[in-house]
Amino acid sequence: MNVEDCIFFQLAKAGLAGARYWNEQVAALGLTASQAMVLNALRDEDGVSVHRLGDRLRVTGATMTGLLDRLEAMDLIQRKPHLQDRRAIEIFLTPAGRAASEATSALAIAANRTFLADYSLEEQTALRGLLKRLAQTEHQTDDPGGTGPGARKGDL
Amino acid sequence: MNVEDCIFFQLAKAGLAGARYWNEQVAALGLTASQAMVLNALRDEDGVSVHRLGDRLRVTGATMTGLLDRLEAMDLIQRKPHLQDRRAIEIFLTPAGRAASEATSALAIAANRTFLADYSLEEQTALRGLLKRLAQTEHQTDDPGGTGPGARKGDL
DNA sequence: CGCTAATTGTTAGCACGCAAGTATTTTGTA
DNA sequence: TACAAAATACTTGCGTGCTAACAATTAGCG
Fold this sequence. Notes:
The structure is a homodimer of 156-residue chains.
Chain A: H1 7-27, H2 33-44, H3 50-57, H4 61-73, E1 77-81, E2 89-93, H5 95-115, H6 121-135
Antiparallel strand pairs in A: 1-2
Helix pairs in contact in A: 1-5, 2-5, 3-4
Chain A binds a DNA duplex (30 and 30 nucleotides) through helix 1, helix 2 and helix 4.
């Protein structure tokens, strides 16, 4: 089997191609693709915990910490301690962050349209459905008594 | 527009989900997903240059250097200087690397089948075609005389 | 021949994304 | 109340991918 025909290869490359395009779009705002996604998520729902934000963006808490560190350094978000639960923090958009989130939201709509311009409506619908199913794929590691070594990292 | 409906988000997450699964499969061989793909590529075509290998795997030379460093440290590949062109090197599988490439190749076939087991043949065909088109997408950065700042990195 | 292009691989620095481990705090239970 | 368990965020270390800059070599052209 050729490398190019491996579904994991094709999935990874399609994902990276999309990330490259999205990166170019938000670079004008001084943002990376992931940072723009964080702002987009915060635009919908402000004052959330790190955990909740990571759930929406499907990344671990460790990744969130780094993303939030950079966004905070840019003065786009602010960490506030949670009043009831002293373990938790609440993440808020600053005024500049609010403006940036509006910009990225508009960019996202335009970029989606442009990126998919060459695809028919049927293809777009099929693609969305397939990607959703693929992203939710959870091939559980059947671990019958053994001490699982844990999954590796890597993107491809 | 919700973050979850952004095509770049969906593409990235589907790619990562596939990478996670593929990573689990090759972890038993002590390999990462990307390393296994390098071995798969070398199984088809040995004694190639870094540049050619990067072209097949769609990664830059800098990324190839790191991958080859680790594979060489594991004694799975070997760098040999090119006799005619002293800039270039040739990459060869060691005997252990050859064996590993056979194993990863078999794993790739099985993993592809398992991963796509829940999808109909029509869906698989459609998915392959769409991913291929997406991966080859090249929205050229129209750069009319300006000094382009260059694209950012980031995966999502 | 001699100078400039272009090519080849590497290095350095950054941004993700993950697992594993830590510190703090909250919660559940005896 | 006291103690174990869970939750929350952070830190560390690694692998991958990118751009940019670099040294070495080759190719092209006057």
